[in-house]
Amino acid sequence: xxxxxxxxxxxxxxxxxxxxxxxxxxxxxxxxxxxxxxxxxxxxxxxxxxxxxxxxxxxxxxxxxxxxxxxxxxxxxxxxxxxxxxxxxxxxxxxxxxxxxxxxxxxxxxxxxxxxxxxxxxxxxxxxxxxxxxxxxxxxxxxxxxxxxxxxxxxxxxxxxxxxxxxxxxxxxxxxxxxxxxxxxxxxxxxx
Length: 192
Prior knowledge:
192 residues; alpha+beta; 4-stranded antiparallel sheet; 51% helix; RmlC-like_jellyroll; Crp/Fnr family transcriptional regulator; cNMP-bd_dom; cNMP-bd_dom_sf
């Protein structure tokens, strides 16, 4: 087994242990896909039928508003699941883009395949539910932080709790994510 897949299995086993039978059933449905910087995993308006586990690299999720401004809503790094949640689960056109910010290695599973596995293996379905719960908790946390804290407090939160955001995300994307202008972010950073 490739080290890439070993890393993935190690990660999911920490969330919910899988039996050897489940792992054996899962493996044929997993595929490695590598993306260059600025490639798209998902394009706004297309139906997303793949879920990506990030082995290495960084991605952003964003949408374009009525003024064609890019609004960044999420960033994913190693051991994150990158998926257009709305599109993947509803099988309707995606409301967002997911684009790489660095060369990115992923392990991919298709929508159809994951549902086959859910129907056959309760423990794989449970793993999917636990991953979804983790994702929802993270989204809720960021939603509250972005809605209730000042620009300075939001930036300080990222410094303390999500240093990869500060180190690896271009400032213009980070400002959009924080809901502030680039100039404001530069001023807040200068006050540190």
